[in-house]
């Protein structure tokens, strides 16, 4: 048995994800465990559909076991997102490799880039000088790598999946993990790309097609398509951020700059710009665009605003996730869970009452999850009541051959 870990959002599960799973298995993985974001994702917005629905699709498409990346890490920048996800997979104690999509598909180069990013030479005055010149951290890091180590490595810091791949490898190094990195070269459309390439479309293009009613059936595996159709018919999808717009604007208008500064990833006075923009903006997009600067990207601002709105603070994602929460499993996944109960270095959570046995930090993280799901329920076409998170039990997929 060779088990691969995968970091995913499956928002929704599309043909690119199916290809990644197929390639992971072709490289020798007999079993797969995915750590998946919950009801809010790294883009700084609600996931397209409830996590239960996305878990069902993943299991039906061949993932054996799905665990959750808790909210404070799921809504973070690449480094913290990767640290939390890889930390959970490593904590299971029985995985062999970490499989991820990558524009380059070159593990050796990605490892060199990860070591370059962590080098003392780069993290001294070189990167500081570029940041002081007004660059974003990402641009400063990329430029510093080019200066010190050449364009071949710096190119890996330009594309989103290679950037995440570098962060996954850095997390493995920091943990001293024995998981072997496995890079699957991406095919088809790039991140956020509008075109369909070779039958593959980006998740953002698929979500947009679903929302506006364009054809999207050929862009998803059949079971994923059927799952989404069922959610649409039940008015449990799509979750749309604009349905929360008034609430988010109210929240930002009500907060002082000091309160906004409590959110993760806030520095250099950006809290003042957000507070000022919130008093002028009439829409979320206007809030983001009024706040954006050369140094603060649109994505970073979206995450800061979402975290502040949901009550996530800097200290909430500073360490590692405090538990392994199981979202779903199939027949083979049940066997993996049996292994995890013997090897895991973190407590395994199957139902909400399991949290009561844990420390105050774990209870706090779970409370954040519960409150955020109550808010997420307002973004759905048919508003759902509070308390869904505490009633959630793992999805059990029983139709495997």
What can you tell me about this protein's structure?
With 401 residues, the protein is α/β, with parallel strands linked by helices. It folds into 2 domains: 3-103 and 181-239 and 319-396, HUPs (Rossmann fold, 3-Layer(aba) Sandwich), CATH 3.40.50.620; 241-316, no CATH class. It has helices spanning 15-26, 51-60, 71-74, 78-92, 107-117, 122-132, 137-149, 151-154, 160-175, 203-212, 222-233, 245-254, 257-260, 270-280, 284-291, 298-310, 331-343, 360-376, 388-391, and strands spanning 3-8, 31-37, 40-41, 45-46, 65-69, 97-102, 180-185, 324-329, 348-349, 395-396. The strands form 2 sheets. Strands 1, 2, 5, 6, 7, 8, 9 and 10 form an 8-stranded mixed sheet that branches. A two-stranded antiparallel sheet has the order 3-4. A hairpin with a 3-residue loop joins β3 and β4 (45-46).
Whole-number average pLDDT? 95
The CATH topology of the largest domain turns out to be Rossmann fold
| The top level CATH class name of the largest domain | Alpha Beta
**Total count of helical runs of at least 4 residues:** 19
Assign the CATH architecture of the largest domain: 3-Layer(aba) Sandwich
Which runs of at least 5 residues are low in confidence (pLDDT < 50)? none
- Overall tally of structural domains: 2
Order of helices and strands: EHEEEHEHHEHHHHHEHHHHHHHEHEHHE
Radius of gyration: 20 Å
Oligomer: single chain
Tell me the strand percentage band: 5-15%
Kindly name the structural category.
alpha/beta
Report the end-to-end length measured between terminal Cα atoms.
18 Å
The CATH H-level homologous superfamily of the largest domain: HUPs
Morphology call: globular
Question: Main beta sheet: strand number and arrangement?
Answer: 8 strands, mixed
The helix fraction, in percent, is: 40-55%
Number of strands: 10
